[in-house]
Write a structure and sequence with these properties.
Order of helices and strands: HHHHH
Helix content: over 70%
CATH superfamily: Ribosomal protein L20, C-terminal domain
Strand content: under 5%
Distance between the termini: 86 Å
Largest sheet: none
Shape: rod-shaped
Structural class: mainly alpha
Radius of gyration: 26 Å
CATH architecture: Orthogonal Bundle
Length: about 110
């Protein structure tokens, strides 16, 4: 019985993997085993990076709110607890945007919680 290797499928697999490895340096872009490892590692980093991005943005928003609220003579933690107590439901992203782009609106919120 003749040997069956299914070259079409294996070539398609390699092409798909090399397409993902496009732009890599050296053997990582054109040697099957090396490129496969590089692509798998890159996918792991991409997954983790999507989680890290959320943490980074939250930290950025907190830093911006903190800087704006310190100028008003209050600390970040006190401000956030007063927001919760005052039942003002604004998330950190919105507060940071207001602090950066609309100082008057941010000051109005601060005046409301004081």
């Amino acid at each position: 019985m003749p040997r069956s290797v299914n070259s079409v499928a294996s070539r398609a697999r390699r092409k798909r993997m090399f397409k993902q490895a496009k732009g890599y340096f050296g053997a990582r872009k054109n040697v099957t085993s090396v490129a496969k490892n590089a692509v798998e590692k890159a996918l792991v980093y991409a997954y983790g990076g999507r989680k890290q991005k959320k943490r980074d943005y939250r930290a950025l928003w907190i830093a911006r709110i903190n800087a704006a609220i310190r100028a008003e003579g209050m600390s970040y933690s006190v401000f956030m607890s007063k927001l919760k107590a005052g039942n003002i439901m604004l998330n950190r992203k919105t507060l940071a945007d207001l602090a950066m782009n609309d100082g008057a609106a941010f000051k109005a919120i601060v005046a409301q919680v004081k």
